[in-house]
Design goal:
Layout lengths: L1 E3 L3 E4 L4 E3 L3 E5 L4 E9 L7 H16 L4 E10 L2 E12 L2 E11 L4 E9 L2 H14 L10 E3 L2 E6 L2 E6 L7 E6 L2 E12 L10 H10 L3 E12 L2 E14 L2 E13 L4 E10 L3 H14 L1 E2 L3
Antiparallel strand pairs: 1-2, 2-19, 3-13, 4-5, 5-9, 6-7, 7-8, 8-9, 10-11, 11-12, 13-14, 14-18, 15-16, 16-17, 17-18
Length: 291
Amino acid sequence: MHIELEGLRISLPDSSQNSAPCIFTDDKKHESLTVSRDKVPAANWNAADIMSQTRKEFQSGFGESMKVLNQQPLVLLGQPGQQMKFKFEEFGAVEYGWVAVALMSSVRFVQITYMTRDEGDGQAKFEHMLNSVSDPNLNFIAKMKGGWVHRYAGPIALDVPINMDPPHVYSFFLSDDPGTNIVVKLYRLGQSAEPFPTLQQETARDSRDGAAIDNQEFGAFSAAGGNGTFTKYVSSRRDAAGNEREFVQQLQIAFPDGLTAIVSGRTPQASRGQLENTLNQLMRTLERSDR
């Protein structure tokens, strides 16, 4: 599948799925949008059951100030769901929140949570977001229109206000090879809170965690007008069950406009060939976008 992140279009296996929430924020306007995918807690649970649990979790997290304002059913990508509006107090200010959950299958559901201090504007924005939800696996390309950008958000794609910053870290696992993980980190010069790490610094994390680094290789490549380097190595850790060997491949590419991307893949040594093919294909097909 092809997905478009912030300024970068990448190719990943069709079996790729997000393993962490996608969070969009605007700290100045006190806005946040979180999209996540989770397991259905128990067999035969429906959307109302999931929302009931979500409501309890929010009440526990936000405390006694949280008040549910309304709750009603919805349909998202043809699947049954529930949505809820609530408010709570934080640091002396009233915050408003909207959350929607919908089944994606009998074992997975998607959750969309939007929070802001502007109740009137927030209601309209949340409705727009829900109406814009699409399937991100259909060769997704970001589109901008009227103050919104249709963005990749893991299990779904949806319109996000243009003022909200997208995530700079995206984590994936392969459903047909759960032991394989791929992380994409995006840094933009002058905008990222911290300077981007080098591949040597990324590799050093394994050593600090007690792993032995063996058979390390380095190389260079170019794609989409950027210049990059990559490294491959075997990371070995000894645990109670014996020696665990993991193959790691990392690549870093910098572009003239200040965007730098780091892609890290990890897999058990036995699945090395599949991961190498995946990241080599990513390097060959990497493209820039204007979003």
